[in-house]
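YM 10:42: HEAT repeat protein sequence, as discussed on the call
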Amino acid sequence: MEKERLKWLKHVEDWLLTEEAECGQDAVVERERLIVALKTLNYEWDYLLDAYGSASEVPVVLLKLTSDNPEVRERAILTLYTTVFHQGMRTLSAVYVVSFLFHLLLSEKVHSKEEIIDYLVHLAIGYPEESLPEGVEPAAMRQAADDAEQGMTREQRGAYLYEYYSLRVEVLCYQEVFRQLDILMPLTHDSDPKIRKSAIFALAWFPEQAEQSLIHILDQLESETEDAAVANAILAAGLLIYQAGLSPELLKLEKYRGEAFGPLVRMAVAIVHGRFSLNRESIDLLLASLCEADQLNQFHREDIQFYDGWFVSYVIEILTCGSVESQKEVVLSLCNRIGTYQKIESSSVRYAILDLLNQVQDDVYSENINLLVACGFPEQKADLFKLN
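YM 10:58: structure's back
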């Protein structure tokens, strides 16, 4: 393992020298940054842990992210997802990994930066979909870590950092990413659309920096023409505004409801609208967007950052997070649209609607629900729905 680590250190050193020769004086600062990063990799990793024990192999994996070979980079990022980030849990080594990854984002020679950015989001908050639709509350995260350490001695708190599941490590990872958001902000305007989408998505999870991040997100939103990029930026800005308690008027949603934009954008608008106020108007918008879900097959899931591209799940999440009164409105609106939903060919949408009804019936039992299922989805009624 030490031989392999030295080989990759030599690879990066050669890479740095080449970059300096090609770019001249401008590369000096870049080289100094990555030399600092290399020193980070000389840390005593044996004393850190990943999900399977000693983190001694982590530096080798990190260095492979600098490879020109896409297969090598792909294996490296997958390894990081299963070791440093394991089933949503982060170990202390993750904090050091964050530092090195940001050094890579600063280099012009690093490929697949969108993969690195997406991984940084996971290190900061865990699985993003688990934080939707509410977003994250940094103060609550810090308080939870403080509560977990309540009554611990200094030595015990130090030992707690090395435990497999440590709330303090999660806070440290989040803070380390937050500290370097200024590196992500310019990437929202990158020439590569994948990098732009990932950078915009990443900024959405840091409400304490909302105002500055929104300047970049909203500016780039004005420049985007592709529907998936527009939808992604709308969702990111909407989530950031919601978490920070800012006015939704900042987003100017009305301009994105017209025929100039497709169903993907309209669904994003409906989601943001519903997150701020789940009333009759927003419920109708959300349900109308489900009617267009069949048309979303033209988009690749990887084009959408939120919910891994499963927008229908996001819509259902919004519809079921309101009060009992708002869920009554959901049932009534579904009844009014029964004819439309009978024509939907997508089985995933039909099952999502049934799941929605199954969730609301516990709190909002109504004869209308039975009628809706019996008339709208007779073939699934017996198997998927428990009628009272």
